[in-house]
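Exam review. A common question shows you a sequence with its structure tokens and asks you to describe the fold in words. Practice with the pair below. Do the first one on your own.
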Amino acid sequence: MAESAKERVLQQYGSVGDAYVRSAGHAGGNDLVRLVEVVAPASSDRLLDIATGGGHVAKAFAPHVSEVVASDLTPSMLAEAEKFIAGLGITTVAFAIADAEGLPFPDESFDIVTCRIAPHHFPHPDQFVIEVARVLKHGGRFGLIDSVVPNGELGAMFNQFELARDPSHIRSLTVDEWQELIVAAGLLVELIEFFPKRHDFADWTDRANVPFDQRSNVSAILIDVGDAAIEAFHLEFDGSELRAFTDRKALILAEKG
């Protein structure tokens, strides 16, 4: 199952890397600014960014550390990130193809590990966190940002909505699940903050290459829930059509003590 899930990631993102470089939602946001603040990078730090996507986290941290290693499972996505970073004249970022659940790096080789808006694609998030803990030095920091869902049926429904748009989506976890995995890997949770993120439905489906005639089936998953979804995800409409929704990102800072 894990291998087929990773094949879906390669298929889904193999041709859309440039869209993620250009995506305003990935390129910026209060969560990215805050991630740099709370991780508090030092000029001597070596940082690993897992599932770098368009390379925006690598770009944000590069001026503050000695080296960034930007890694991703998808070679074409990594190539787009490398082109983007090189175009900015940044020379302190290296690039590596890497599976988040089996990192090709030695034990205790990074002062900081980051991962932003990606773990919902990982088949085994527990193994991902174990790998993070393995490659972190003693006293190292782990900065995680990802979508989190409510407990229960509403969270299951939102994951169904995400999967209908993107077949490589596995599952967004609850914040309680993330805390449990991080603690089980031997890390200490230092901070949790939440960020609402509004998504234009047309842009959100465009970025994943959802055929136009299938988009109403995707939006219906949320709309059919009714008032509970409207309240939880702040649904916005143009007539009867879904215009936008808002989900929630969690920023979690942990330390290897």
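Now try the second one, then compare your answer with the model answer below.
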Amino acid sequence: MSALQNLQTLLRDLFQLDSADLDFGIYRLFRIKRDEIEVFLGEQLPRRVGEAFQAVADEERAALERDMAGLAARIRREVAEDALSERGEPQREHPAFQARLAKELLEAYEGKRRALEGMRASEAQQAEVFNHLYAFFSRYYESGDFIPRRRYGARKA
């Protein structure tokens, strides 16, 4: 079972959507809004998490592109105008890349370029978010009831 499915199962259990005998208080509202809750759990929650990851990825991509453009301009200005091709690929065999500063700039540029090429919100990152949400909601919920539990964190000095 995936992390998303675990979270959805826990939330369905938490909302007691399958309990017909609970027809009072908030549970009555949950039963009335059952279809909306199911749409949220099944469609909106995964879509919104995906959108949030995409927004973060877009921001990171824009920042990497700005950094790469700055490094490319610096390489062309400080190393050599033709040290990078028109497409932005470094000309490693260029004699100007033998200097230490040029090598450092080239390594930084290539690191940013690799990061940009490999950037995408992975399934593992999304699963980690769903696992954290599961842990949060399951922390105080057990067998159909909310239980206050004291949590102590590590003290940092």
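Model answer, second protein: The mean pLDDT is 76. The chain has five helices and two strands. Full marks require stating both points clearly.
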